[in-house]
Every structure is written in C-alpha cells, then in structure tokens.
Amino acid sequence: MIRLEINGWEAHIGFSAAHILPEHDKCGRLHGHNYAVHARVEGFKGEQGFVLDFIPLKEKLRAIAQELDHRVILPAGTVKESENEISIKLSGKRYVFPREDVLLLDIRRSTAEELAGYILKRVIEELEIPDSIVAIEIGVDESRGQGAWVKKKL
Ligand SMILES: [Zn+2]
Fold first, then answer.
1. Centroid of ligand 1 to alpha carbon of 34 (angstroms)
2. Quick check: is 105 in a domain?
C-alpha cells in the first residue's frame, strides 16, 4: 500500500472565506480564515508505476477551492433566501448578505470538519478514481496546524 499526499499550504491550494459558528462563544461572530485544502490517497501502484496522477486531483481541489474563495459560507438549510439577499438568524442576531457574496453548501455547519466532508464528497463524485485506490482523505486547515480530516474507504 502506498500513500500519496498533497499539502495545500505547499501546493498553494486554499481559499479565504468567512463563516459563523452558531452558539459558539467566539466563533459565533462573523469572521474569516485563510484555509488550506489537503489530500491523502491510499492505494496500489498501477502498471504505469504510480497510484494516482497528481495533476487531475490538484486541478479538482483547486477548482473547488476557487468556488469557496472570497465567499461567506453558510449551510443551505439555515438561511432565508430572497431575490438578492440571503439572511440568517443565529443566536438572536440577524445577518443579511448580498446573494452574490454567499455560497450555500449542503452542510450542517461551516466547520472545517464539514467543509472537509463536502470537498471529499465532491472529489469522489467528480474525479475518475481507478480501482487501485482504496481510500481518499481530505483535510481542511483553518490556519496552519489546525484542521480536520475526513476519510472515505472506497
Ligand atoms: Zn472560524
């Protein structure tokens, strides 16, 4: 078994985004992070001598990071939508954002854990993954040295 790793800090795969974590003392206020997105792939070498081509995986991670970049990331189920605005009520506060500034994701909260799970799901759905791959793991750091990893066995 071989493990490949892409480090988002070193490979410059990341995004800047704002979020709010409801009912959290400090993170319950709107704030942002410079996130990095990492990947680990476990599998066996194919006939060409490698486990997975790094390039399409990096391109996919970059494309997803680009979608998240410079947005306010909110869980889709928690907001009210009007034509031009997205509003959200959290812990007695009401935020209203221009629609174009917001990215609504099918997650429960915009934590690093949930963002890693979202990116992992996208990678598995959208990337052609050879049978020789046994697991894919995505990590999302909110800052250097602080992040969450989600792994899926294939
Ligand atoms: Zn935060």
1. 10
2. no
Q: Ligand 1 centroid vs 109 CA: distance in angstroms?
A: 11
Domain that holds residue 147: 2-72+112-153
Q: What CATH number does residue 23 fall under?
A: 3.30.479.10
- Alpha-carbon dihedral sign for residues 112, 113, 116, 118: negative
Active site residues: 27, 70, 142
* pLDDT of amino acid 138: 98
How many A from CA of 66 to the centre of ligand 1? 19
Residues of the chain with pLDDT below 50 are none
pLDDT at 47: 81
Domain annotation covers residue 28: yes
Q: What local confidence, expressed as pLDDT, does residue 121 receive? A: 98
As for how many domains the chain has, the answer is 1
Domain-located, residue 84: no
Q: What is the pLDDT of residue 71?
A: 98
3-state SS string for 44-92 = CCCCCCCCCCHHHHHHHHHHHHHHHCCEEEEEHHHEEECCCEEEEEECC
Residue 142 lies in a domain: yes
